[in-house]
Structures are given as C-alpha cells and as structure tokens.
Design goal:
Blueprint: H1 2-17, E1 27-34, E2 44-51, E3 57-63, H2 82-90, E4 94-98, H3 123-141, E5 147-157, H4 159-169, E6 175-181, E7 187-189, E8 192-193, H5 196-207, E9 214-219, H6 227-239, E10 244-249, H7 263-276, H8 302-313, E11 319-322, E12 327-330, H9 336-351, E13 358-362, E14 365-366
Parallel strand pairs: 3-4, 3-5, 5-6, 6-9, 9-10
Antiparallel strand pairs: 1-2, 2-4, 7-8, 11-12, 11-13, 13-14
C-alpha cells in the first residue's frame, strides 16, 4: 500500500509540474445532482470543487450537520461548505459536498425519521442511514473522469461527523481516512443530549468493526457535545478497537460547536493528520482562488473591505448591503430573495435602525442605486 501511495504521489506531481503556476480560473465549482432511487426525483444536491489539472485525483466527501430547529433543515445547501471544499481542492483533492436525504432540496426521507427523535432513539440506525448517503456519493464519484476513487477520505460536521464515523464501520472500497468534526446526534439544547447513553453505545458499536484511521476534533466550549461527553464517545469507540486521534481544540467565541466553519482553526491539525497518513497529493499548495475583479462599495471601512473580499469568494445565492457607516452580507442562501432579505436584516441590525440600508450586490451583479 505504501508503495502504491508513493507511486500515486509521484505521478500526480509529474502531471502538476507540466502546468506550474496554476491560476484561479482553473478552479471548478459546479453544483450537481446525484441520482438515487431512495432520494426520489430530486436526487441528492451536491457540489463539486476541484482544480482542473490533468489526470485523476483523490476524492474527499464532505457532509453537513443538522440544525436543532427542524424548520432550518430546508435551508441546508452544499455551497455552505464551499470554503472547506476549497481548502481540500488547494491540496489536490476533488471535493464532493453532499446534502443528505431530506435536507435542503435533496429528495428522500430525512435521517431524523430513523432513530434520531427523542424520546425513542436508535442512534446506531440513524448513523448508518446517514452514512448510506455518503456511500452513494462515493459510488457516484467513481464514474467521474477527474476522480481516482481508490484514494478516498470522508469528513463531516455534527450529525455529519457522526455519519462519517458510521461510514467507517462498513468502509467502502478506497476509504483511507476519515475526519469527524464535533460529531454526535440528539442535541436538544446547550449541554442537553437526548439519551446520551444510547449515543455512547452507538459509538461503541461502530468501534467494533471500524479500522479506518480517523481524526476527531471537538472544542473545549462545544455546547452541543461538550468535552466530558466527547471523551465518553472516544473511550467507547476505542474500547472495541476503533482507531481515532482525538483533538480538543481551544475555545473560539461563545460556542465552538461550529469550528468547522472556521477553517483556520483546524487547518494545521488536518494537514498534520493527512501528512501522518501519507495522504498529501501535492508537495506544495496550489495558489489561492482569486475573487472576481469587482469594485467594492464606496467608503467601506477596513473591516468592510475584508468582508467584501470574503463575500466575493463565497457561494451563491448571496447579497451585500450597506448603509452610510455599516454593512451586512449573507451567502449560500437558497435563492436571491432570501439572500437580499438576510443581508438587509444584518445591515439593519448593525446600524440599529439608525441608518437606511441598501443592497448593492446580489451574487456578482452590482445593483444600480
């Protein structure tokens, strides 16, 4: 296996050398639909992100969490994980972000109907149900011309992290490692998980047959799955032979359950893990993607200019609003109307209704005053 990996890395680097100096226009960001009979007519909503280099490249499958408020499940879309997908793309991976059944516009029965509801919980069943969506995504990617599906990793956050652990229980061919960001199920409120003993038991059962190297990252101030509970997950998983490297990240903000959003908070940790397991397609990072050459709104503060640069790199649908002294932005919405409303709401909140807010950009289109 080590010989195969080294041959793979050498071949990939030779191909890369032929196009030294790849530029941002070679980044591909494409929303797709994954057909699957259990996801109905709509299939699974997904996003492909990669750098358009010659040859086939290893695959990373990413998946989301589950908002506590069930009404917000309809708002999940793959563009919300564009920054994380780009992180992997810069390192030579083809990133496939999937929205699982019943979330966003993906069809099918949601995983919450399969053991995720309080008071009657079957966390092992819901984990296996969610993991099936990831397997389908990997199978679909095997047919993509850019993908080498003999080299696969998977990563998920919150309920998606739990699904990733479940995926390693019956690992698909080619899965070489997996990353669990703050994984779990059943969080009802801060420091309140429904039937936590059942959740610990599910981790124990997954550990019986999971032998894929894993990285688990939780935060010291995670209020969904706090350190004491996360350590119980880890101990249960390891007690039956599961193989994970457990990292407790420092606090960031009031609740760092969402540290997956803060790429800088985990970048070095994941880089070290991938290096440790010889999962580095490239010896050097590809150049950062560059934003479109669009003029910022006038008179923005330095903070506003930085926010606008970030806005240009983030996914649709999105909007940027300004007042005389304040701004607000919203990205990765389901449609432009929702993006416009959310950007205005954030601008008005910042201005405390003292100034009039106006939308100046929708997606990459400048709005005339």
């Amino acid at each position: 296996m080590e010989h195969l990996r080294r041959s793979f890395l050498l071949g990939f680097w030779i191909l890369l050398a032929a196009i030294v100096g790849a530029r941002s226009q070679s980044y591909v960001e494409r929303e797709i639909r994954i057909p699957w009979v259990l996801a109905g007519h709509d299939g699974l909503d997904a996003l492909l992100v990669y750098v358009d280099l010659p040859g086939k490249h290893p695959l990373v499958v990413l998946t989301h969490g589950s908002p506590r408020n069930a009404a917000e499940h309809a708002d999940v879309n793959p563009w919300q994980e564009l920054p994380q997908a780009l992180w992997f793309a810069r390192r030579g991976w083809v990133a496939l972000v999937i929205v699982r059944r019943g979330y966003g516009t993906s069809g099918g029965d949601p995983d919450s109907n399969h053991g995720g509801h309080c008071p009657r919980t079957d966390y092992q069943e819901v984990g296996e149900y969610s993991a099936e969506d990831m397997r389908i995504a990997i199978d679909y990617a095997r047919g993509l011309t850019k993908v080498d599906a003999t080299h696969v990793i998977a990563a998920g956050v919150s309920s998606g992290g739990f699904a990733t652990v479940a995926l390693t229980d019956r690992a698909p061919f080619g899965l070489e490692a997996a990353i669990n960001f703050a994984g779990g199920r059943g969080s009802q409120a801060d420091h309140d998980v429904c039937n936590p003993g059942d959740l610990v038991g599910a981790y124990r059962n997954f550990g019986k047959t999971s032998r894929i190297p894993m990285l688990w990252i939780y935060a010291q101030n995670d209020k969904f799955f706090w350190p004491e509970l996360a350590h119980r997950f880890d101990e249960a998983f390891r007690s039956k032979g599961g193989q994970d490297q457990f990292v407790l990240a420092p606090p960031d903000g009031d609740d760092n359950h969402h540290l997956f959003r803060h790429v800088s908070a985990w970048s070095a940790i994941v880089d070290d893990f991938l290096k440790q397991h010889h999962l580095e397609p490239l010896s050097e990072l590809l150049p950062n993607i560059q934003p479109p050459n669009l003029p910022p709104p006038p008179d923005l503060s330095e903070q506003g200019l930085n926010a606008f640069r970030s806005y240009l790199l983030l996914g649709p649908h999105k909007a940027f609003a300004v007042s005389e002294h304040f701004f607000g932005l919203s990205t990765a919405n389901m449609n432009t109307e929702e993006a416009e409303k959310n950007a205005l709401d954030k601008c008005r909140q910042a201005a405390q209704k003292k100034e009039i807010c106006t939308v100046v950009y929708i997606d990459d289109r400048k709005i005339k005053p």
